[in-house]
Design goal:
Layout: H1 2-20, E1 28-30, H2 31-34, E2 35-37, E3 43-52, H3 65-77, E4 96-104, E5 113-120, E6 131-138, E7 144-151, E8 157-160, E9 165-168, E10 173-182, E11 195-200, H4 205-219, E12 224-226, E13 231-235, H5 244-252, E14 255-257, E15 263-267, E16 272-275, E17 280-281, E18 284-287, E19 291-302, E20 316-327, E21 332-335, H6 343-352, H7 357-370, E22 373-374, E23 376-379
Length: about 375
C-alpha cells in the first residue's frame, strides 16, 4: 500500500509539472548537422603492401606463401635476380604482408596527405617498429588515387616465450598519420546545372518540409522544395550563381526543427533503456511482481561411537532438501495517461515504486504487446 501511494504521488507531481511547464518543442539544429550535399562524400581506398624492419615477428615464410611471392616480385622490380626454383628457401622473419586502407575525403587535392590504417594479413606476431613500403591505394574503379609509405604507430606490445605471453591492445594493427599522398582526385562540381540537392541523414517528411520552409523564408519562395522524405532540391538564386560556396555556407548555417519517429530502444543484456521524448502511452493497467525461489541442500550426518573390536558402528548420511518460495505482492497499477505525459515521466513514476531497469524492460515489452505504447520498440 505504501509503494502504491508513492506511485500516485509521483504521477500526480509529474502531471502537475507538465501542466505548469508545457512540453517544449524540438530544439533547433543546423542544416549542416542533419543533412549533407548530394555528391559530397568520402571514397574508400585499399592496397596490398609489405612492412619491413620487424624484430623477428614477421610472417612465417613456410606458411604464408603470398608474402614470399610479394618479396620476390618486389626484388625483381628493383633489379635483384632470384632463382624462381629456390624461392622457397628464403627465410625472412622481419617482413609481413599487410592490407592498407584509407578514406579519400571530398575535394582532396593532389599532394595533400591522408591517414592510413595497416593490418596484418598473414601470421605475423607484431608490427611494432615496422615501416610500410610504398603501396599504391586503389579505388573501387581500380585506379590509383594515393600512395602510402611510412613508419607505423602501433600503440601496443606483445612479449613472451614458450610458456607465457604478455600482450596489450592489438600489435598487428597500426596507423600512419598523414602516411598517404593523394595522387589523383575525384572530379565534382558544386551547383552543376544551377541547382543543389541535400540528403537528410535520417529521412523524415516533417524535417524535409521544415528545411524547405526555412530556406524559402531566407532566400525567397520557390528556392527549395522537398523532393521526398530524404532529400530537398534547391535552385541557386541569381545573386549566388558565381559564388556557390557562400550560398552553401548560408544554407548550412540555418536553424530548423528536426523531427523523428517515436522510439524506445532497450538492451536486455546491459539493462539499458533509451526513450524518445515523443513516445506516448494510452491508459493501461500494469501488474509486476518478483518471484524468489531458493533451493538448499543439507546433509544430516549420524556418527556412532568410535569403532571397537566388539561393535560394528558406521556413519549414516541422510540428505535433506529445503525449498522456500517468496513472491512479492502483485500491485495492479493503473497508468491513466493524459495528454502531454510521456514515457519518460512514466519511467520515473515506476522507479518510485522500486522498479529496476530490467523490470522496466519487461513492463515496456508487455505494454507494447498490449497496443498501449504509441511508438516503435527496438530490442537490441
Amino acid at each position: 500500500m505504501v509503494k502504491y501511494m508513492k506511485f500516485l504521488l509521483s504521477l500526480l507531481f509529474t502531471a502537475t509539472l507538465i501542466s505548469v511547464f508545457p512540453v517544449e518543442k524540438s530544439e533547433a539544429v543546423r542544416i549542416k548537422d542533419i543533412a549533407q550535399l548530394h555528391g559530397v562524400r568520402d571514397n574508400q581506398l585499399i592496397g596490398y603492401g609489405l612492412v619491413t624492419g620487424l624484430s623477428g615477428t614477421g610472417d612465417d615464410m613456410r606458411r604464408t606463401k603470398f608474402t614470399l611471392q610479394a618479396i620476390y616480385n618486389m626484388m625483381t622490380r628493383h633489379g635483384i635476380t632470384l632463382n624462381p626454383e629456390r624461392i622457397r628457401e628464403i627465410r625472412i622473419k622481419n617482413v609481413a604482408a599487410v592490407m592498407v586502407i584509407a578514406t579519400l575525403p571530398p575535394f582532396a587535392k593532389t599532394g595533400s596527405t591522408i591517414d592510413i590504417q595497416v593490418s596484418s594479413m598473414g601470421d605475423a606476431k607484431s608490427l611494432a617498429g615496422g615501416t610500410l613500403l610504398m603501396t599504391p591505394l586503389l579505388g573501387a574503379d581500380s585506379q590509383v588515387y594515393a600512395v602510402a609509405q611510412g613508419p607505423l604507430a602501433i600503440g601496443a606490445f606483445s612479449f613472451g616465450g614458450k610458456a607465457a605471453q604478455v600482450q596489450k591492445n592489438h600489435p598487428t594493427v597500426g596507423r600512419v598519420p598523414g602516411g598517404a599522398i593523394v595522387e589523383n582526385t575525384v572530379a565534382f562540381e558544386i551547383g552543376e546545372g544551377g541547382s543543389l540537392e541535400y540528403q537528410l541523414r535520417d529521412a523524415d517528411f516533417t524535417t524535409s518540409a521544415n528545411m524547405s520552409n526555412a530556406i524559402n523564408r531566407r532566400f525567397g519562395t520557390g528556392t527549395a522544395f522537398p523532393d521526398s522524405s530524404g532529400s530537398v532540391k534547391i535552385h541557386i538564386p541569381e545573386q549566388f550563381s558565381k559564388n556557390v560556396v557562400e550560398f552553401v555556407a548560408a544554407i548550412e548555417s540555418l536553424d530548423i526543427e528536426a523531427d523523428s519517429t517515436a522510439k524506445v530502444v532497450v538492451n536486455e543484456r546491459t539493462g539499458t533503456i533509451v526513450m524518445g521524448k515523443d513516445v506516448r502511452l494510452s491508459t493501461v493497467a500494469v501488474s509486476h511482481g518478483n518471484l524468489s525461489l531458493i533451493v538448499r541442500e543439507d546433509y544430516e550426518v549420524s556418527q556412532p561411537n568410535p569403532f571397537t573390536p566388539f561393535s560394528r558402528g558406521r556413519t549414516v548420511i541422510t540428505p535433506q532438501t529445503d525449498i522456500s518460495v517468496t513472491e512479492d505482492e502483485g500491485e495492479l497499477v493503473l497508468l491513466d495517461m493524459k495528454k502531454g505525459i510521456s514515457l519518460g515521466e512514466i519511467a520515473n513514476a515506476l522507479n518510485a515504486i522500486g522498479a529496476t531497469p530490467r523490470d522496466l524492460i519487461a513492463i515496456f515489452q508487455a505494454i507494447k504487446a498490449s497496443g498501449s505504447m504509441h511508438g516503435e520498440l527496438i530490442i537490441l
